[in-house]
Design brief:
Elements: H1 22-28, E1 37-39, H2 46-51, E2 55-60, H3 63-73, H4 79-95, H5 100-111, H6 114-121, H7 150-169, E3 171-176, H8 179-184, E4 191-194, H9 211-223, E5 227-235, H10 243-247, E6 252-259, H11 266-269, E7 271-278, H12 289-294, E8 296-298
Helix pairs in contact: 3-6, 4-7, 5-6
The protein binds S-adenosylmethionine.
The site of S-adenosylmethionine has 22 residues, from α2.
Length: 310
């Protein structure tokens, strides 16, 4: 892998997006596997689209994310259709001095159209993706009536084009389903990348992740016949993730510091130590040397506490 690898950025954003961790995750993933790249928690899809596998199963419990990528795969969402939609709606946003955002939000909460999803995702406050108890999108406007300026629309259209090229060159399938269904359908040759919501952190209608979910996931992953990589948080200066020792210590673990930029929550204000848990020994042959220097690899069964520094 080149040190100058350019990260492919998808057109939608979400909390916990791994844009800045993609090259690390890529360096850990086996470069050759004959099966499918399987993501039970695809979110924005940034990891899969940078791994760029020939075959992929990409799933999430959030139907809006899945509908959006299905619409790209079906060529309903294309750079041309996105441009004409954003020019038209962006113009109304400007002329209404921002009020049109709330018209689109109400429309989206009624019909769930993927174009409206993109519009809201790219003009809401802080690029957040948050849904209320009834499943309605409830993020306020970013308060920039000029949001959809020509250069910004072009940037989004280019992102749609890049993702659409990747999807159309490979065999990609998108499913709205619980992670258990996705993991139940894997083969030995597949490679799983799991990025569940971080326990005790961001929570909303589609990210209701508690200890039971974390235990169930650990149980499923301990039984899979293929390789897996799991992203989780190791700790920040205030606390350490208690499940690292309780649930994941039988696997390999790599950790690295990371600074989150999306959202206004705790993870945003502090650097956080991220962990990758794997059920195979990561070889890291392809990783740039400065990246390897920052990583700490712990063997299975190593006690991660109390002396290991965060
Ligand atoms: C941290 S995000 C994934 C971020 C993604 N890796 C990225 O870089 O954009 C977690 C995702 O898990 C999804 N999710 C939450 N609970 C789930 C469940 N039980 N089954 C499947 N997906 C779930 C959420 O909708 C969210 O998109």
């Amino acid at each position: 892998m080149s040190d100058f690898y350019r990260t492919i950025v998808p057109p939608i954003k979400c909390q916990g997006i791994k844009t800045r961790l993609v090259s690390w995750i890529r360096s850990v993933a086996p470069s050759r596997f004959t099966g499918r790249w399987v993501e039970p928690f695809m979110g924005s899809g940034v990891v899969a689209f940078n791994i760029c596998p020939g075959k992929a199963i990409l799933a999430d419990s959030n139907p809006h994310v899945i509908n959006f990528y299905k619409a790209i795969a079906a060529e309903k969402i294309t750079p041309i259709s996105v441009r004409s939609f954003l020019v038209r709606e962006g113009d109304q946003l400007l002329r209404s001095n921002g009020d049109h955002y709330y018209v689109v939000r109400e429309r989206f909460n009624q019909y769930g159209d993927p174009f409206d999803f993109l519009f809201l995702n790219r003009s809401c406050f802080n690029g957040l993706m948050r849904f209320n108890k009834k499943g309605g999108f409830n993020v306020p406007f970013c308060r920039k009536p000029h949001r959809f300026a020509p250069a910004y629309i072009t940037k989004i259209c280019n992102q749609v084009k890049n993702i659409s090229n990747i999807i159309n060159l490979g065999e990609y399938e998108f499913y709205c389903q619980d992670f258990s269904t996705t993991i139940n359908n894997i083969n030995e040759e597949d490679m799983i990348y799991c990025d569940p919501p971080y326990i005790a952190r961001h929570s909303d209608y589609f990210n209701n992740w508690d200890e039971n979910n974390e235990r169930k996931l650990a149980n499923f992953l301990s039984l899979v016949s293929c390789k897996f990589i799991l992203s989780t948080w190791y700790g920040n200066k205030y606390r350490k993730n208690p499940f690292i020792d309780a649930l994941w210590s039988e696997f390999y673990m790599l950790k690295q510091d990371h600074f989150y930029h999306v959202g206004a929550s705790e993870e945003n204000r502090n650097s956080m130590t991220e962990a990758l848990i794997t059920n195979f020994e990561p070889l890291l042959y392809d990783a740039p040397s400065e990246m390897v220097e920052q990583m700490i690899l712990l063997e299975p069964g190593t006690s991660y506490t109390p002396n290991s520094s965060i």
